Structure to design on (269 residues):
């Protein structure tokens, strides 16, 4: 496992009250308070270089350590703003920029391989996850599967790989008040994959795409993947365009709650 990246030490001295819930975190970001605080600290080029090289590298994710003087939620806000999330880009459309993730609650497909924001016009490029509540064990990982690994495995059937890359799926049937959104599963550069939607589309797509979806659903469970853990000591940032992810298989009673901040992307036009 790669060492955890420590954030700039100056971040521990920012004069902001730690947000204890999602609305407080969203408010800090919306009002530009986090951005003002970051503007007062010097840039840390070593952190910057290490952060982006890991996130843009083959693993598609980076784990950032939470110093004892910082709350995970505040660090998530700092990281998201530092990465380029502007107050003007904050919104509440289709899940919103900042949201609470409660493990084992309702959307159990989150515990299967998926990408976030498949119904957005442009899904968020990155997701930042930090622990709000619960005491996760080392087994409660947020698994990461790079799309490149999936694409390599699909080369065994070039015809289905081609249909996954170019034939469209409709991603907004659950949002009838919004215009249709048609996009391929393995688009360039955005990947979209979430089983309940893809499964429903199976009736409507070509034979080749149906084969491609079945093959993908099969191979994602055979390929090697990464197992970073979101805990009180570390947060996770991943590339939502270049990796699939899945939450740990835990029940609601575990009390595991995360804050998720989506960095960049456009939900609706
Ligand atoms: Fe997710």
């Amino acid at each position: 496992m790669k060492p955890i990246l420590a954030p700039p030490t100056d971040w521990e001295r920012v004069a902001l009250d730690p947000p204890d819930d999602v609305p407080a975190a969203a408010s800090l970001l919306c009002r530009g308070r986090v951005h003002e605080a970051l503007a007062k600290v010097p840039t840390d080029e070593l952190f910057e270089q290490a952060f982006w090289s890991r996130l843009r590298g083959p693993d598609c994710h980076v784990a950032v350590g939470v110093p004892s003087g910082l709350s995970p939620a505040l660090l998530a806000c700092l990281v998201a703003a530092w990465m380029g999330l502007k107050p003007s880009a904050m919104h509440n459309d289709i899940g919103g920029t900042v949201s609470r993730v409660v493990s084992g609650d309702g959307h159990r497909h989150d515990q299967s391989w998926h990408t976030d924001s498949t119904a957005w016009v442009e899904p968020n490029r990155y997701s930042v996850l930090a622990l709000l509540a619960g005491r996760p064990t080392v087994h409660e990982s947020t698994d990461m599967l790079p799309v490149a690994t999936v694409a390599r495995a699909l080369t065994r059937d070039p015809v289905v790989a081609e249909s996954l890359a170019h034939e469209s799926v409709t991603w907004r049937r659950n949002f009838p008040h919004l215009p249709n959104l048609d996009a391929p599963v393995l688009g360039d550069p955005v990947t979209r994959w979430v089983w309940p939607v893809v499964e429903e589309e199976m009736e409507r797509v070509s034979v080749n795409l149906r084969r491609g979806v079945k093959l993908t659903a099969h191979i994602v469970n055979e390929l090697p993947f990464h197992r970073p853990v979101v805990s009180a000591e570390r947060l996770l940032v991943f590339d939502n365009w270049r990796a699939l992810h899945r939450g740990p298989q835990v029940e609601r009673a575990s009390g595991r709650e995360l804050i998720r901040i989506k960095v960049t992307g456009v939900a609706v036009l």
